[in-house]
Amino acid sequence: MKPSTAAIPFVLFWFSILLHSIADQAFDVRQHLSTVTRYGAVKDVGNSSSLQFSIHEGCTPIHLNLVARHGTRSPTKKRMRELNLLASHLEELIRDAKEQKLSLQKVPTWLQGWKSPWRGKLKGGELISKGEDELYDLGIRIRKRFPDLFKEEYHPDVYPIKATQVPRASASAVAFGMGLFSEKGSLGPGHHQLLQSAVKAVQAFRKSQEPAVYKLKEPILDEITATLVSRYELNFTRQTLLLYGFSEASLLDITDQACGLFSPSEVALLEWTDDLEMFILKGYGKSINYRMGVPLLKDVVHSMEQALRHKKVIHVIKGFYERQDYGLHMQRRWFLSHVYLVFSLNDQNLKIQREQPLELPPRPPHSRNWWGSMVAPFAGNNLLVLHSCPANPSSKYFIQVLHNERPITMPGCNNSDFCPFEEFKEMIVAPHLKHDYNTICTKKLEQPEQKFETSKLLLLFHWLFSLGRDETESTKADL
After folding, report:
1. Would you indicate the residue range of the signal peptide (predicted)?
2. Of 217, 226, 350, 352, which sits 20 to 30 A from 234 (CA to CA)?
3. How does the average pLDDT of the chain come out, rounded?
């Protein structure tokens, strides 16, 4: 049977996140690093009682939409410079303390003479081996979960793999493809395509919001700074905290040095400030963030409708199956937060349908359901599966959404994890289709004479992920 030619875009969707509390589990700082958390550290957090994936009786998966973030990467050049500045700053603090004949008994031994593990390194932000493994293993697991959809040997014309114009995204796409098609052909030349666009409309918006976000973070930074000064009797400043990162914990599994300076409650506060920034700039905190996901939302629904409309579903006597073209959109940092724009929180569904800003996540120790480590860790992913259920009397097609490989319920679909396709379009998709991407993002292209043959989806990808060039990413985002 010939494979069909309908390419499947990888799409991000909103999902509800199960609450997880530091108090409910043994504290591991590697699970509390916001969006620089490694996939393996949080993939199963909060999922002990959650839904397990299973194919419903009488149904067959026939179509996939997936978007995945790049895997764990090294610190960017900007972050490495900041870590070098931190080393100099700590050296200066120790020197000043000695000159003033202050006691250093409370100062950890490692802090005296600490140097950045990445000092002298010329490159930054590239995918590391841990990140390659994350995507390679994800590809293997998806192939094992949907074996009938990946029987064909790999060919770039049949299975297009797409990535943004960032080396770590491209390398992640290759690693995923190697896992997905291991023993099914070689990726070879042309293994992935770069998504190109000249849209930078959201960059100015983000910059305009950063001062207000920083104002919200200042009291927490000052509070923790004062505690550190009292605890270690060194003149730590707010700038010290801004230079601090937890790259050692995230990338090197070193948890008893930089991370060891802070108590679990202080780590929770620092994590909350990062999550707060993400919530405002990329999540429910601003109405415009809902609208960023509109082209993505249209694209995934269109791909499914097209697959069904153009005889991409093959009926067989006593059976039903379909072979599709598959592709991977491997993206940078923030795509996962925008998926939150479709699937909604149970108690906030009406506000989300109206695209109204939600209240900020409450300060720890209060429970919250917005965690950067859960929404968009390294290699975080969202998979939307279209099922054919020919014997079902109410609907022949159903949608199931997996976030980080776990099914999630959809409040817009009666809190079910298995939603009739038409109901999905009416209750979850339709409320967000009143906006037009081009009218929202009117920033002129820098080079108007260049015309790229891009869909709105591709324009959105650049919009979402062109924010973080190595030289311009924010301190926390660079970790």
Report:
1. 1-23
2. 217
3. 75
- CA dist 422 to 314, 344, 349, Å? 20, 18, 19
Q: Which helix (H) or strand (E) holds 161?
A: strand 161-163
The residue segments making up the domain with residue 173 are 22-74+125-204+273-464
The most confident of the ranges 15-24, 39-48, 398-407 is: 398-407
Pairing of strands 328-331, 161-163: parallel
CA nearest neighbour of 70 among 126, 122, 16, 29: 126
Vertex 33 angle, CA 27 and 35, to 5°: 145
- Amino acid identity of 424? F
CATH code assigned at 289: 3.40.50.1240
Q: Is residue 454 domain-resident?
A: yes
Nearest CA-CA partner of 281 in 13, 18, 11, 35: 35
Convert the pLDDT of each residue in 52-66 to its tens digit.
777 888 999 988 888
Asked if residue 86 is part of any domain, the answer here is no
d(CA 147, CA 47) in angstroms, rounded, equals 24
- Whose tokens are 């009488």? That residue is 58
**Counted domains in the chain:** 1
Task: For residue range 107-120, list pLDDT tens digits in order.
Answer: 999 898 899 999 99
Which residue has tokens 């293993």?
137
DSSP label at 359?
P
374: in domain:
yes
